[in-house]
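Predicting structure from sequence has reshaped protein science. With that in mind, we have picked out one protein's residues alongside their backbone shape tokens:
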Amino acid sequence: MESTKKPYQALAAGIFLPGLGHLYAGDKRGAAFSFVAVTACFAVGLWLADWRVFAFSNSLFSGVFKNLPIHLLPEAVNFGETTVAWIMQPESADPDRARLLRLPISTEHLGLTLTGLSGYLNAILAADACWLVARDNLSEKRGRQLTGRPAISALLTWLVPGLGHAREGRGRIGALVGFGVIGIYVMGLWFSDFRGVDRSQLYWWWAGEAGFGGASLVLTPLLGPLALEHDVDTVDLGITLLCIAGLLNVVAMTQAYTLGEKRALDAEPGVTPGGTA
């Protein structure tokens, strides 16, 4: 009997709640891993940053829609947990909330990094759940079991640009992607005097920068606390380059994922279960 499950439903479920997409796809182990990984990242970050997570943008809606946290980027891709945290924060009329939001804390850089990266991580895992459903549907139609996990290539690219392409057998392209993205990112650091990764000061720009997840995970907690003690004429150029590097890497992640899909779909096209090419 042909499956009625839809890949986009797995994607939406995974974005709504970590692991729900994998549960929909029938992968209980993947569901547990996704939930624990994303939730731990978000919860630890929220604990470290406290209410500072909500200090940098306001809701885009009013009335019954004011609790939709789509203005919190990239956390909003972990939609369910971010919504719960947004609803649970103290009311805006609470004077303690206003004081806490204005007051920087020593652990906010690591905390804001973790909550932000949880959104990217959840997007990758939701895409994995989407592929699992699509793979099962295509396996039924083609009469042979498809394999592969394109999301792993996307994850590797997010951490180290070009690594996902290398996994898919595109080493030369991976090298070009790696040198290109990392080169632009390093130029951004240089022109910003290594001050361009402070999320608390560059909230919207950092959402793009975090497309290079490996660098953001290491450098935001490390360089974010550095004070800008003198004028830097090229700081805006540096911040722009950092954001461009992150966004370019998101494109590279998408390509690595697509290459993984193509490799899985093209593998041994003449082989059927129990038969040979």
Notes: Confidence is low (pLDDT under 50) at residues 270-277. The CA atoms of residues 14 and 126 lie 4 Å apart.
